[in-house]
Amino acid sequence: MEVVLIAGPIVNSLKVECSDWARMELGHTLSRLSAERNISTALYSISSYAALARRRAECWVLLQNQFPKLIPATTQPEPSLKPTQPSEDGSKVARRLLVANLPRRKMTFQGRNAFSNAPISSETEVCLYWHINVKTTGESYSNVSANIKVLSGGTFLFQPFIGSFQI
């Protein structure tokens, strides 16, 4: 009886390139797979990464639309990229907005702290971080974390929550 190992197709040469914005998260894996000449895992890596990157960009666009007053002007999209009218069902996201948000890995929100009992006004800053990683099998997964700060008079008071979870 002969045992035949099933592996992905191996090619003589494989050169894989990705966009500059994706290189930080996907580049190392693609370089390794290119050196191994493993085309099936390389293509699966690109596909699974692209699906998560699109979901991340959609999330950023939806957050921008829902909370425009909480996003500082420095992190707002360019005026030409702001939606002129909301989508009919709220689920469709304009392609130009998606493309503009594909490179984004961080979004910052700032606003008055409604839960503070401090006699002086305080401001809360929430930074969301969303990084996509790729396993050796080509499967992509997300690391999402939040950093919450309560600021008072420009002074850092405390940092009550730093957490992360996987999607």
Portion in helices: 25-40%
Strand order of the largest sheet: 1-2-3-4
Radius of gyration, whole Å: 21 Å
Q: What share of the residues does DSSP label as strand, in percent?
A: 25-35%
Task: Provide a compact summary of the structure.
Helices cover 31% and strands 27% of the residues. The chain has helices at residues 20-36, 39-66, 95-101; strands at residues 106-112, 122-134, 140-152, 155-166.
Itemize the secondary structure elements and their pairings.
Blueprint: H1 20-36, H2 39-66, H3 95-101, E1 106-112, E2 122-134, E3 140-152, E4 155-166
Antiparallel strand pairs: 1-2, 2-3, 3-4
Helix pairs in contact: 1-2, 2-3
Q: What would your notes on this structure say?
A:
With 167 residues, the protein is α+β, with helices and mostly antiparallel strands. The protein has one domain. The protein has a four-stranded antiparallel beta sheet. The longest helix has 28 residues.
Key features?
alpha+beta, 167 residues, 27% strand, 3 helices, single chain
